[in-house]
Write a structure and sequence with these properties.
CATH superfamily of the largest domain in chain A: M75 peptidase, HXXE motif
Strand content of chain B: under 5%
Radius of gyration of chain A: 21 Å
Largest sheet of chain B: 2 strands, antiparallel
Number of helices of chain B: 14
Shape of chain B: globular
Largest sheet of chain A: none
Number of strands of chain B: 4
Distance between the termini of chain B: 64 Å
Distance between the termini of chain A: 46 Å
Largest interface: A-B, 47 and 40 residues
Helix content of chain A: 55-70%
CATH architecture of the largest domain in chain A: Up-down Bundle
Structural class of chain B: mainly alpha
CATH class of the largest domain in chain A: Mainly Alpha
Structural class of chain A: mainly alpha
Strand content of chain A: under 5%
Order of helices and strands of chain B: HHHHEEHHHHHHEEHHHH
Oligomer: heterodimer
Shape of chain A: globular
Helix content of chain B: 55-70%
CATH topology of the largest domain in chain A: A middle domain of Talin 1
Chain lengths: 335, 420
């Protein structure tokens, strides 16, 4: 088998090598380092919460922010290890259009549900009360962060962070031990039958990430001109909404430029389009996107969304065909 | 057994012969014929339900309420099989919210239990109770609801205040008016609205029985007229038929968009997996009637039906013609077999949920925290649907129809739309 691979590689050196390089480079430069950071910061978050579980603890809030940053930076990589056992859903249940997170947390605290005794038991808990968005309520929501019994809430914070640490570690381990190999060495029996299918997965990660940032991170608070929804902004309680858009654009730009590495003019076009979006975002001083309700500030946030849509258009019209992949389906299809 | 297998092989081979080349145009015509038949069946069963509901309101009784419920359940059978036409066909997708919007804040329509809660952060009209109020304020405007008409439901209440959970029309609004809230939590049992909610004068329970009847009839009439409109879109000369047959590659892409989007994002994701992960009985698609197992099953059957190009109508007659399966088999027989196998696996997994539910293991019980058997049943369906989506993507690649699919029906395809 090995000999055959070697011969094939020699015989088709230019095409095969460059195609597999794209996947290999993305795994090594883009995916693995980011999931390692997520696991490390998840671990630190758990340790910090063990030392001080109070909602106003500055070290805890800082560790939460760092780990949440790491999550947002991988939030477009929704395939393989993140989907095993619903890990990513458990880390990041959002948007929560029916208010399940505050309702579920309040019920836990009010009934002093013993499920918080260990992270293992907590793995059975509703995703509404797990992960980063539940933690945000526990640290920053005026009602939930002070609700009920302090001791119980402290244990809850420690269990949620321990659960986050375990989930992020499991994802990183799976990537290291098996999934990186499955993605870079396609086989007829594996999840990817050809390098083209592997590249399609990465391309879909890019399109899905852009869609999430445009439709949810920006689109949800923007609503319509007549009816904006500032409290639908992502993580507005901790003032992280704009930061999440910035982090996601940074990650998506890295992925997009890797995917376009074989096509320098397209790569330059993508770089320029991302730079426009990032520059405009940096000029908006509105961390929680509260300005969506005000016509003057709203237009700036709308403009960022337009820039993201421009990136989406380039990706849809040029990058897919340049890679020779089809766009496929994602979890955001449907309503 | 062997001989029948052999016969099958021969058939497969013969259908792949060049002399019998499959024309995309014929596949599209058969697709439109199936849509016309499914929507016509939906209309026929909705009219039967309309007659039963008229009887219930004219002569309220336990028997007449049950007859109306039975008619609603029957009407769902063909309708759920049409959902595969939704994504990919803008005419269907733009219209669908009127007839099948979900989930709903039912407190908008009628009385609810105290546990329902009041207005929410997301929806100020969540507990409006139109049936109990002849006049109310909505989005700053005073609304005269002294007469409950189809126009009031469709033009004023539906998606009131820009909130999608304000569902005033369609199957699920009617379902709520027939069954009432399911207050059994994770326990067995559906909503248990008393027939006396429609009774006259002193026998009337929970107040406003006349207005409740008025609302139920208005919502039902609206559903019937909406279905009449959709049937017309798919008959000869109809706009949906014209749209899907106008450009062959775009038409095939529309079929595939419908198959993939309903499989993955909608049924496997939004409707099934989320409920398991949230352990939330309110996440049931038909939470009042406890009919969710059928919603998912008939979605799966509808997807399979479109791929095979065949639909068995409610009178037993069969619509059959050139199919996507034939088209794929011509280019890549192995992929066609893979697709058929995966569709069959998914339908089988969905039928396991259905049979367990019909034997008493209600869908809300499956959703309960720690119910591993229930979670495994539902995830079996989810995994089957996700798995078939991967093969649908392969079909798109093999047929070379990517890049033609409509990205979605919202205006965001136009980067500057947000400024308009």
């Amino acid at each position: 088998m090995k000999t055959c691979l070697a011969i094939c590689a020699i015989a088709f050196l230019p095409g095969v090598a460059s195609a597999q390089d794209v996947t290999q480079n993305i795994v090594n430069d883009h995916i693995l380092p980011r999931f390692d950071v997520l696991a490390e910061t998840g671990q630190t978050l758990e340790e910090t919460a063990l030392a001080d579980c109070s909602a106003t603890s500055e070290p805890l809030r800082a560790a939460f922010g760092t780990a949440f940053d790491a999550w947002v930076s991988v939030s477009h990589l929704r395939f393989g290890p993140t989907e095993t056992d619903d890990r990513a859903f458990a880390l990041a249940f959002w948007p929560d259009s029916r208010g399940a997170t505050p309702r579920t947390l309040a019920t836990l605290i009010r009934t002093k549900d013993p499920i918080t005794q260990s992270a293992d038991a907590y793995a059975d808990m509703s995703i509404a009360a797990r992960g980063f968005y539940a933690m945000e309520f526990l640290l920053y929501d005026a009602t939930i962060s002070t609700f009920g019994d302090d001791e119980y809430r402290c244990k809850l914070v420690q269990t949620v962070t321990a659960d986050i640490a375990k989930l992020t570690q499991d994802i990183a381990t799976d990537w290291q031990n098996s999934y990186a190999g499955l993605l870079t060495n396609p086989s007829p029996d594996g999840p990817y039958r050809s390098d083209l299918e592997a590249k399609q997965e990465l391309f879909k990660a890019l399109t899905t990430g852009l869609q999430l940032t445009s439709d949810a991170r920006l689109g949800r608070p923007l609503g319509s001109f007549d009816r904006s929804h500032p409290t639908r902004a992502e993580a507005w309680r901790s003032g992280r909404s704009a930061r999440h858009v910035a982090l996601s654009l940074e990650s998506l730009r890295d992925l997009a430029t890797h995917l376009a590495q074989h096509d320098p003019p397209l790569q330059a076009e993508l770089n320029a389009a991302f730079a426009r979006a990032q520059t405009q975002l940096a000029a908006v001083d509105d961390p929680a996107f509260a300005g969506v309700a005000n016509p003057q500030s709203r237009i700036k946030i709308e403009a960022i969304r337009s820039r993201v849509e421009e990136i989406r258009a380039i990706v849809r019209n040029a990058l897919g065909s340049s890679l020779g992949v089809v766009s496929g389906f994602n979890a955001l299809d449907g309503d | 057994m062997k001989s029948s297998l052999l016969a099958g092989t021969v058939l497969c081979l013969s259908s792949a012969m060049p002399a019998l080349a499959i024309e995309k145009a014929d596949v599209l015509v058969n697709y439109a014929n199936m849509a016309a038949a499914k929507y016509t069946d939906s209309l026929i069963t909705a009219r039967t339900m309309q007659a039963a509901i008229n009887d219930l309101v004219a002569n309220p009784s336990a028997e007449n309420l049950q007859a109306a419920k039975d008619a609603w359940l029957a009407a769902r059978v063909p309708y759920q099989q049409t959902e595969v036409f939704r994504f990919g066909n803008a005419i269907v997708d733009d219209w669908e919210g009127k007839v099948n919007a979900w989930p709903l804040d039912e407190g908008l329509i009628d009385y609810v239990d105290a546990s329902y809660g009041g207005l929410s952060d997301e929806n100020a009209a969540a507990a409006l109770n139109v049936i109990a109020n002849v006049s109310f304020t909505l989005g700053g405007e005073t609304i005269d609801a002294s007469s409950i008409t189809p126009a009031l439901l469709a033009d004023t209440l539906q998606e009131a205040d820009g909130v999608e959970a304000n569902v005033a029309t369609g199957y699920h609004a009617i379902e709520f008016l027939l069954w009432g809230q399911d207050l059994n939590g994770h326990g067995a049992g559906a909503g248990n609205r008393p027939w006396t909610d429609y009774a006259a004068s002193d026998a009337c329970t929970n107040g406003n029985c006349n207005r409740r009847g008025e609302y139920l009839i208005a919502a039902t009439n609206l559903l019937v007229s909406d279905l009449e409109w959709m049937v017309a879109q798919w008959t000869d000369g109809g706009a949906a038929r014209a749209a899907v047959t106008a450009d062959q590659d775009a038409g095939i892409a529309a079929i595939l968009t419908g198959l993939g989007s309903l499989s993955y994002g909608e049924t496997a994701g939004e409707r099934m997996r989320l409920g398991v992960m949230l352990n939330e009985p309110e996440e049931e698609h038909s939470c009042f009637a406890d009919n969710t197992h059928n919603d998912h099953f008939y979605n799966g059957l509808g997807i399979q039906s479109v791929y095979h190009g065949t639909y068995t109508r409610i009178d037993g007659s069969v619509v059959l013609g050139p199919s996507l399966s034939d088209l794929v088999a011509e280019t890549d027989p192995a992929l066609d077999m893979e697709m058929q196998m995966k569709l069959s696996h998914a339908v089988t997994a969905l039928s396991r949920i259905k049979t367990a539910a019909e034997a008493g293991f209600a869908y809300d019980m499956m959703l309960e925290r720690g119910n591993d058997a229930g979670a495994a049943l539902i995830m079996g369906g989810v995994n089957g649907l996700i798995d078939q989506t991967r093969s649908i993507e392969r079909v798109i690649a093999v047929l070379g129809v990517d890049g033609i699919a409509i990205e979605g029906s919202d205006s965001l395809d136009d980067p500057e739309a947000v400024f308009q």
